[in-house]
């Protein structure tokens, strides 16, 4: 394969891959994400008890969110609350929630 043809193929694959991440429905995700705000929407992103840092998820990368939620669902990631949340989600729920959260602007750290 010639270098220009290889480059064109890679660019086309990259363009396709960047549109694939939009598998989730942002509007459906907005109605499903209410439970997430209980911890991830806390100002300062700290949990009262036990006291630990809660990561910001607004504006997070779509693929990362899908992977993380799927990991909790499968038990590959350990956190009791997130594991319980993940187990209740369908693959479509995961994609919808991830699409919505990825579409949000990140909040400034406090």
UniProtKB/TrEMBL annotation:
It comes from the Bacteria. GO terms for molecular function: electron transfer activity; heme binding; metal ion binding. The keyword Transmembrane does not apply. Pfam families: Cytochrom_C. Residues 24-105 form the Cytochrome c domain. Residues 1-22 form the signal peptide. SUPFAM superfamilies: Cytochrome c (SSF46626). Keywords: Electron transport, Heme, Iron, Metal-binding, Signal, Transport. InterPro entries: Cyt_c-like_dom (IPR009056), Cyt_c-like_dom_sf (IPR036909), Cytochrome_c_Oxidase_Subunit (IPR050597). This is Cytochrome c.
